[in-house]
Amino acid sequence: MSKGRVEAFSDAVIAIIITIMVLELRVPHEVDLAALRPLILVFLSYVLSFIYLGIYWSNHHHLLQASQHVSGNVLWANLHLLFWLSLIPFVTAWAGENLFAALPVAFYGTVLLFSAIAYYILSRTLIACHGQDSALALALGQDLKGKTSVILYTVAILFAFINPEMSCLLYVLVAMMWLIPDRRIERTLAS
């Protein structure tokens, strides 16, 4: 089966998710800068979530570039990832509009955690489709960054009930880890 439809569908879903998120930003009715002050946390949650969606979009693109074809299992694993990503607008709005309270921050982390797990499942399903000796399998290797992310998300979720700000910092830390481009797939495909 061709991977083109999976790429196009995933790109469209992620674009819709970003659109939904931006529509959640409410325009103030006043025209002075003071009217923006209550929206700062909402905006910051939007920025972080936009960055996360960009990271997933970019890595998803690289993952499929290294793939030759997809199977039915890959389609379902991809839908599983898109399901968790589709919840990002909800938890983004909930956390931002409730001043990063403990429960919304924990739910935000839970969605990030399950998105990371879903991405891992997708990558392993693609490896199973292509074989353990494939360029994709070699490029992904042990996926230390992915495993570290899961650990940090879990710690952040637990921390949300003690110190929600620390949880948010951990979410930012994971995003920063992934902002540094992962060149494993590009290097493997080039060689």
From TrEMBL:
Pfam families reported in the protein's UniProt record: TMEM175
Keyword check for Transport: yes
Keyword Lipid biosynthesis: no
Catalysis: reaction(s): K(+)(in) = K(+)(out)
Transmembrane intervals: 12-29, 35-55, 75-95, 101-122, 150-180
Location (main, coarse): membrane
UniProt keyword list: Ion channel, Ion transport, Membrane, Potassium, Potassium channel, Potassium transport, Transmembrane, Transmembrane helix, Transport
Membrane topology of the entry: Multi-pass membrane protein
Location relative to the cell: Membrane
Family per similarity comment: Belongs to the TMEM175 family.
Official protein name in the record: TMEM175 family protein
Taxonomy of the source species: Bacteria, Bacillati, Cyanobacteriota, Cyanophyceae, Leptolyngbyales
